[in-house]
What does this fold into?
Amino acid sequence: DITGVILAGGKGRRMGGLDKGLVEYQQKPLVVHVIERLEPQVDSLLINANRNADKYQSYGFPVIADQLADYQGPLAGFSAAMIAAKTDYVLTVPCDGPLLPTDLVSRLVKAMDRQNAEISVAHDGQRLQSVYALIKRDLLPSLQACIQTGQRRVDAWYASQAIALSDFSDTPESFLNINFPEDSDEIQN
It folds into this structure.
């Protein structure tokens, strides 16, 4: 009942314009690490990418692009995923988090159920990990209305929703991401 969506639609500004999902980490692209950890947790998988669609399709999953032009951020990826998914829920994760928790879905679902929420988001004990989120697909009209106002910040949309925080303070390292070339060295050590 959950479609996993790997968000790989950014410009990669902090990575010198490289497509982050395709950046190598431990001899394979970051997106492959994410696929390996996410696929067993979801019913279906999509990759949200705005460039290099052919490379992403080579991993065997449908590739969807944002419907908004000019790289509008994660909310545009959320919207594209919610339109394309056929399940009641979408689970979003970034393409640059190769250590994502192998129990991400189960913990997000438990928090959502326990707190009777429509969105469940990971919290690493220090901060909200806003794109590690389980979202009810029927929130699409609300999301689209938010986007139409020009809003591009995920937390701004979340503020108007029933949101549950899922505590991952026991595994904060799971949310390390690779934003700069030197981050790859930090994670490997």
Notes: Residues 184-189 have pLDDT under 50 and may be disordered. The two ends are 37 Å apart (CA to CA). Helices lie at 30-38, 53-57, 74-84, 104-115, 140-148, 154-158, 183-188. The longest helix spans residues 104-115.
